[in-house]
Design brief:
This is Pectinesterase. GO terms for molecular function: pectinesterase activity. Keywords: Aspartyl esterase, Hydrolase, Signal. This protein is mainly beta and about 325 residues long. About 10% of the residues lie in helices and about 30% in strands. The chain has a domain of about 150 residues: 3 Solenoid (Pectate Lyase C-like). An 11-stranded parallel beta sheet has the order 1-2-5-8-11-14-17-20-23-25-26. Strands 3-6-9-12-15-18-21-24 form an 8-stranded parallel beta sheet, with no helix packed on it. Strand 1, helix 2 and strand 2 form a beta-alpha-beta unit. The protein starts with a helix and ends in a 7-residue tail after the last helix.
Length: about 325
C-alpha cells in the first residue's frame, strides 16, 4: 500500500511540474468525488489539454468504461491492483441492451482512444468465460500509452494492443488469457511482465503493418501457464508482416519446441518477423524453432532500446 501511495505522489509531482493538475477521486462508498470510473472520465472536458489525475479506491467496478479520443493527458491510479477491479462481460456474438450485435472490437471492458493515457495499479477484466469466444478486457487505440503494475484478465483476446500508429508501454503487468490474447497492430514494449496462458493456444496475434518497424517486444518477461496447459505457441501472424520479439524472457515448459505457428498459411513464413534472444527456462529451445523465425545476436538485441522502439516518445518513470 505504501508503494502505491508513493507512486501516486511521485506521479502527481511529475505532472505538477508541467501544468495545473485536476484531481478526482472515485470511491464506491461515496467518500470520493464520483462513485463510478466512467463518471470521473465523463467529467474531463472534451479536447482536454491539461493533466488529470484520477485516483480509484479499492472496489469491484462493474462497468463498461471508455476514454474518449479527445480526452488526452489522463493518469488513472488504483489503490491496489489486486482489489481495484474494472470488470464487464461482453463478448463477440452477444447483444447490447439496444439489441445490436457485439463484435470482438466492441466487446471490451475498458477502451482507451485518447493519447497520453497512463494507468497504474488497476485490474481490467472480462468475465464472459472460456466458452464465450472473443471477449476483450482492455482495448488500447491511442498513442503514448502506459500501463504500470496493472492486470488484464480474460480468455480469448484479452488485450487488444490496437491501432497504428500507436506506441504502448506495459511494465510489471500481469496479462492472462487463452487464444491470441495479446493482439493488434501497435508498437508495444512489455517489460518485466508476466504473460500467463490459461488454455492451450497462442499468446500473440500481431497484425503489424509492413511499413512499421516493430510490433510487440517482450523484454525480461516471464511466460507462464496453468499447470494443465502444455501446448502453447509464442505467436501466430494475424496479418503477413506480424512482428514479435522476445528478449531475455523465461519460457515455461508449456511453450512448444517449434515456438511459432504460421496460421495455416505457408506464405506467412516468408513475411512474418519473429525473433528471440537469450530465452531461458524449459520452453527455451532455439535449435527446434521453426526455421523461418530468427535467433538474434547479442549485437542485434542491443538495438532494442526504448529510443529504437518508440522514437521521439520519452518514457516517464
Amino acid at each position: 500500500m505504501m508503494k502505491i501511495i508513493c507512486s501516486a505522489i511521485l506521479t502527481l509531482m511529475a505532472l505538477s511540474l508541467h501544468a495545473q493538475v485536476t484531481k478526482k477521486v472515485v470511491a464506491q462508498d461515496g467518500s470520493g468525488d464520483y462513485t463510478t470510473v466512467q463518471a470521473a472520465l465523463d467529467a474531463v472536458p472534451l479536447h482536454n489539454s491539461q493533466p488529470v489525475l484520477i485516483y480509484v479506491k479499492k472496489g469491484t467496478y462493474h462497468e463498461k468504461v471508455h476514454v474518449d479520443s479527445t480526452k488526452d493527458f489522463i493518469t488513472m491510479i488504483g489503490e491496489d491492483e489486486m482489489n481495484t477491479i474494472i470488470t464487464w462481460e461482453d463478448h463477440a456474438g452477444g447483444r447490447t441492451p439496444a439489441g445490436d450485435t457485439i463484435t470482438t472490437f466492441s466487446s471490451w471492458t475498458f477502451i482507451v482512444k485518447a493519447n497520453d493515457f497512463r494507468a497504474e495499479h488497476l485490474t481490467f477484466q472480462n468475465t464472459a468465460g472460456v466458452k464465450a469466444g472473443q471477449a476483450v478486457a482492455l482495448s488500447v487505440k491511442g498513442d503514448r500509452i502506459a500501463f504500470i503494475h496493472c492486470r488484464m484478465i480474460a480468455f480469448q483476446d484479452t488485450l487488444l494492443a490496437g491501432a497504428t500508429p500507436g506506441r504502448q508501454y506495459y511494465r510489471n503487468c500481469y496479462i492472462e488469457g487463452s487464444t491470441d490474447f495479446i493482439f493488434g497492430a501497435a508498437t508495444a514494449l512489455f517489460y518485466k511482465c508476466t504473460i500467463h496462458s490459461n488454455r492451450n493456444s497462442f499468446i500473440t496475434a500481431a497484425n503489424t503493418p509492413e511499413s512499421q518497424q516493430l510490433g510487440y517486444v517482450f523484454r525480461d518477461c516471464r511466460i507462464t501457464a496453468d499447470t494443465s496447459v502444455t501446448k502453447v505457441f509464442l505467436g501466430r501472424p494475424w496479418r503477413p508482416y506480424s512482428s514479435v520479439t522476445y528478449i531475455n524472457c523465461f519460457l515455461g515448459n508449456h511453450i512448444l519446441p517449434a515456438g511459432w505457428d504460421n496460421w495455416g498459411k505457408t506464405t506467412n513464413e516468408q513475411t512474418a518477423r519473429y525473433a528471440e534472444y537469450n530465452s531461458y527456462g524449459p520452453g527455451a529451445n532455439p535449435a527446434a524453432r521453426v526455421p523461418w523465425s530468427k535467433q538474434l545476436s547479442k549485437q542485434e538485441a542491443k538495438k532494442y532500446t526504448t529510443a529504437f522502439i518508440y522514437g521521439d516518445w520519452k518514457l516517464k518513470p
